[in-house]
Amino acid sequence: MQMSESLSTNSNASSVRVSSPQPQSQQSLRRLSLCSQIATHSSPIVFPEKRTKKLKASSRRSEVGVNDVQAEKSKGDEHRIDIGGGDEKSDLLAGVVYSGKLILDKRNNTTTASSNSSDVDQKSSTGVPNQEAVDAKLTSKALVWGSQVLPLDDVISVTYNVGLRHFTVHSYPLKKSSYGLSCFIKPRRSRKDFRFVASSAEVAVQWVGAFADQQCFVNCLPHPLVSSKKQSSSELFPMDIPHELLFKCKNPPKMLVILNPRSGRGRSSKVFDGIVEPIFKLAGFKLEVVKTTSAGHAKKLASTVDISTCPDGIICVGGDGIINEVLNGLLSRDNQKEGISIPIGIIPAGSDNSLVWTVLGVRDPVSAAISIVKVNFLLLLSSWCLLRKRDNGWRL
Ligand SMILES: Nc1ncnc2c1ncn2[C@@H]1O[C@H](COP(=O)(O)OP(=O)(O)OP(=O)(O)O)[C@@H](O)[C@H]1O
Fold this sequence. Notes:
By secondary structure, the chain is of the alpha/beta class. The protein has helices at residues 24-41, 53-57, 87-93, 117-123, 201-213, 224-227, 243-246, 263-266, 268-282, 297-304, 320-331, 336-341, 354-360, 365-375, 381-390, and strands spanning 6-7, 96-104, 134-139, 142-145, 148-151, 155-161, 166-171, 192-197, 217-221, 254-259, 286-291, 314-318, 343-348, 379-380.
């Protein structure tokens, strides 16, 4: 099978991580743009209607994160990437950062919410599926293969086992039923893993590196045979992360989680442990979780926590009350400047959650977790204060 890959640099790659300090004005602008990203993150991506009758009929079904118009197309069209179809779709398909041939291994794709990245790849066989390679490309906004489009906004991370030809893309696309009147219908996302096979291990590394360039977290794991005690052979399969991946992979964010176990009539711990923490783990986050023991505990924590232990932020899990406590705790710190500079994430797990929905436009815990993973934090108290003064939306 003839493979051809070409690597080009992406000048438009957005950098939304919080690690490097920037001048204050730029930081404020970035935070504002992040807030607006968050507000729109849970909105559905709607591809415009196709011109032909056949595709018009399927346009309702194409309003999904993973765009599957395959069923309506003839088999001859199967491996063609359709770039036409309107501005929004063209927007997703523009700005190619890497392209080549990939095989989607349908045998190993999972939708299990609880399985973690290493489970997925340990379970996978290393054999190559008997399927045809299709044209694939990674743009700054989406992964496209055949006629399928997976927006990068829905991608949490990529798992790669050193030395193998395959890699797995972990995503949380919106369920079809979540579209429509997004103001009234609770958006629902569920996990979907796509296992791709490249022409060689070197090409797989390049694909994974291209994902890393687009701010996707990369779980780099040893070769399955090396990690297996029985068949350990570090000489045959070096465990070292390929050099080209090493410098592209980012340090995972380190955050403090303050969880009110009484929120949401006692359901918040279940929400966090069952559906939220797996997303953060998949994205490589290092979390320290503290469950509050009484009213006022969250405020005390926020007012005294050593910020160097959670340099990337504090995530509040609960309802409006716990957010209120954390904000007040940060404002009452001896070093208030430090307090208002710490990024704050909110996972709605209370009984009402009106604050997070009103201010950030996110109301389900999965979408909120994905927003934090994709843009790294939700709001900054300093920006919040600034914005509240204006009283007309998220502007300076
Ligand atoms: N361990 C705890 N035991 C009892 N109360 C607590 C505990 N931890 C926090 N609290 C208090 O519980 C109050 C309500 O919590 P929170 O707002 O998070 O949940 P909720 O009432 O379910 O959500 P919402 O405010 O959205 O309706 C908070 O103001 C906080 O002071």
